[in-house]
Amino acid sequence: MSWIQDHQAFNYAQSNLRLGWMASEPIKTKYFGTGNFEILFELTNSVVFKGSGRYLRGFSLLGRYNLLLPDPKWALYFQIGAGVIVNDAYRDLSQSAIGQAIEFTPQGSIGLHYFIGSSWTVDVEVMYHHVSNAGLSDGRNAGTNAVGGFLGTTYFFEKLWH
Length: 162
What we know:
The protein has 162 residues and is mainly β. The protein has a single domain, classed as Porin (Beta Barrel). It has no helices and ten strands. Strands 1, 2, 3, 4, 5, 6, 7, 8, 9 and 10 form a ten-stranded antiparallel sheet that branches. The chain is elongated, with a radius of gyration of 18 Å.
């Protein structure tokens, strides 16, 4: 991910582990096609490779809508969520974006599952990620915005859709 603000460059590589629960069975709707809702818990670990600090670590709660496409090998998803991270970038007093050790991370994503078996998918995702401390730090809360991509795999413990 890469920050897209006017601040000092702050680039990082993010790794996530997600555990999800299907909150509904697939249903057909007039405007949103056939799909279902999912709730996910995410653990994240980011390594900073350009900019202040060395890491961003934390967790998020995500809500996802899985849109089942006519071809049963594909499923599109949309998700939003928010989380909390700890970091060491706040120690660098020359930057104004991250003002304290604990920051908040509202986010939104769009992704695509490609089924390579009844339980496995290969996934691609594009994510918008905001980091700020919601004004809890005196003086330093310019916040940051990032756009990045993910490539991953998913394993479903039950055959859910196809």
